[in-house]
């Protein structure tokens, strides 16, 4: 799964640069993508990915210091950023040293500036990686939170999760305008919520609301996460 995720990253980055433009990507935290992040320091990814043409963003972040074990940026720094030749100015962590609402607005402005957006426009990321929580949340979009209904803001402040702390998260308008979404899901503990995600298509879960308007969506699963899915589901487009 890690290798498949890394290969999608490599191929998409190379394709974007061939088209004479930068590669805009947003990554997620948690334990599932960490093996993929570590692969980027190895060949062929280290040499073949055009790191100097990449702008790296985060889909969400806990409002904790960057050296806190719960920090998504902190984990990525350890696994990825310290081991690849990406320019410092191309790394865009979410601000956690200011109040969450202010941090969300600051990050939204940064995205708008980098994408040169006009009023009412949304960014088009080339690739966004997402995960799936046991309760069906993705990024930091939790069940029942008012952020689920956000249609204008790119980034908002929320509070919730296993670590019930303040967070900053991108919103559905950002995800659904992306050229490609990759969900990465691992572990037996995700099997039931994954089954619900694919069998009950009524937007019961936050992850079910991620539906790119014109982009591609891929699910990368390990065997344990996919253990309750039928073969027909997997053949209908879920990669595992």
3D structure, described in words:
- The protein is an alpha/beta fold and 240 residues long.
- It has a single domain, classed as 3-Layer(aba) Sandwich (Rossmann fold).
- It contains 8 helices and 10 strands.
- The chain has helices at residues 2-18, 34-39, 45-48, 72-79, 100-115, 172-176, 191-199, 231-235; strands at 23-27, 54-58, 60-62, 91-92, 127-130, 155-160, 165-170, 180-185, 216-221, 238-239.
- The longest helix is centred in the first third of the chain and has 17 residues, at 2-18.
Helix percent reads: 25-40%
Number of helices: 8
Overall geometry: globular
Count of individual domains: 1
Largest β-sheet summary:
7 strands, parallel
Radius of gyration: 17 Å
Instruction: Tally the beta strands.
Output: 10
Q: How much is the average pLDDT?
A: 94
- Determine and state the CATH class: Alpha Beta
CATH topology, which one? Answer: Rossmann fold
CATH architecture heading: 3-Layer(aba) Sandwich
Q: Structural class, please?
A: alpha/beta
Q: How are the strands of the largest sheet arranged?
A: 4-2-1-5-8-9-10
Distance between the termini: 7 Å
Q: What are the secondary-structure elements, in order, as H or E?
A: HEHHEEHEHEEEHEHEHE
> Which stretches are low in confidence, meaning pLDDT under 50 for 5 or more residues running?
236-240
Strand content: 15-25%
Please describe the structure with a list of short key phrases separated by commas or semicolons.
240 residues; alpha/beta; Rossmann fold; seven-stranded parallel β-sheet; three-stranded antiparallel β-sheet; 29% helix; disordered C terminus
């Amino acid at each position: 799964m890690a290798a498949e995720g890394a290969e999608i990253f490599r191929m998409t980055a190379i394709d974007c640069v061939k088209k004479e433009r930068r590669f805009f990507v947003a990554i997620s935290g948690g334990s599932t993508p960490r093996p993929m992040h570590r692969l980027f320091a190895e060949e062929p990814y280290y040499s073949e990915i055009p790191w100097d043409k990449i702008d790296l963003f985060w889909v969400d972040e806990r409002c904790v210091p960057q050296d806190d074990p719960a920090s998504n940026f902190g984990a990525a720094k350890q696994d990825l950023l310290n081991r690849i030749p990406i320019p410092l100015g191309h790394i865009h962590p979410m601000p956690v040293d200011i109040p969450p609402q202010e941090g969300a607005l600051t990050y939204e402005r940064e995205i708008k500036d980098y994408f040169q957006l006009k009023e009412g426009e949304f960014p088009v990321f080339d690739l966004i990686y997402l995960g799936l929580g046991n309760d069906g949340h993705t990024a930091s979009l939790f069940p029942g939170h008012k952020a689920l209904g956000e249609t204008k803001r790119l980034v908002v402040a929320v509070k919730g999760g296993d670590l019930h702390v303040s967070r900053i998260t991108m919103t559905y308008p950002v995800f659904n305008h992306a050229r490609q979404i990759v969900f990465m899901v691992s572990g037996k503990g995700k099997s039931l919520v994954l089954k619900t995600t694919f069998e009950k298509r009524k937007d019961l879960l936050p992850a079910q609301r991620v539906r790119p308007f014109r982009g591609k969506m891929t699910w990368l699963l390990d065997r344990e996460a996919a253990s309750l899915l039928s073969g027909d589901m997997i053949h209908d487009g879920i990669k595992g």
